[in-house]
# Entry
Amino acid sequence: MARIIVVTSGKGGVGKTTTSAAIAMGLAKKGHKTAVIDFDVGLRNLDLILGCERRVVYDFVNVINDEATLNQALIKDKRCKDLFILPASQTRDKDALTKEGVGKVLDELAKTFKYIVCDSPAGIERGANLAMYFADDAFVITNPEVSSVRDSDRMLGILASKSRRAENGDEPIKEYLLLSRYDPKRVKLGEMLSVEDVQDILSLHLLGVIPESPSVLNASNSGTPVILDEESNAGQAYKDIVARYLGEDVPHRFIDEEKKGLFGRLFRS
Amino acid sequence: MSLLDYFKTTKPNTAKLAKERLQILVAHERKSRNQPSYLPELQQELLKVIRKYVQINQEDISVNFESDDNQETLELNIVLPEQPQT
# Structure
């Protein structure tokens, strides 16, 4: 049985596409056949983050409109044999995605893939609603910042009421919190909401904390999902998140400030 | 400001403020999220009926819906003017 994961946040710029790319790569590297779909019609970017922007021939909307087959549109990742990317269309037609069309593509993917990761656009428009409609699991990406937390709570309301599972009266979507751009130093100074604060407000199961890290920009610059940068905090955080999602017991990291020795103080920032 | 004061002043904890603001806001928004969608319409119609008899303003009437595990309550609160106008 395929498992459909939506990566959502409501607010833009919190790290949905970074996270979609990272966890899709992480799942594929664990040997699970994974497809990652860009739902941001008109503002395609997942291809860029995954470094396959020059290999896009057909897209999600072409498949929905039967202008291309799914196999023609899926881009096979060059670094991992189990990862496939379905890029968004750059059309400006807001109605390009339909519930039936998306459902059809997901059903077909479900025949051969273990995990289907849906990268939601920001906002609560059609693309975002369709990205979450068919989901089994939701990764809610939140920054420790007021507007992001509020929007995440709003998404939780929509997840609970406007999904296929809600409409059919099935078991609700499993929701997980991913707290990104976390800075333990500022939390300690009382300048940033802590993990506990955000959990108190949203009452969500924490899948992991991704620390604010320069490696995220470096990764996107080069079109490499940050999870492949195993040296970086963010890369390790995503690796932990994938492992936890797959049921491994991995203790949380990056919540407290790392203790630097004298040399660390001298040579690192 | 003496040197001692400089060390004593602690920066305001803005994270605490953020948490308090969010807790209030989120609780409020969750409450209204679970309300039935007919509430605003109900409020308007009630207002129209009551205005036949007493002149009240929009803000003098509040309709609240609350639900817990075993019951749902529809609370209607109308503030009448001090001098009833007939």
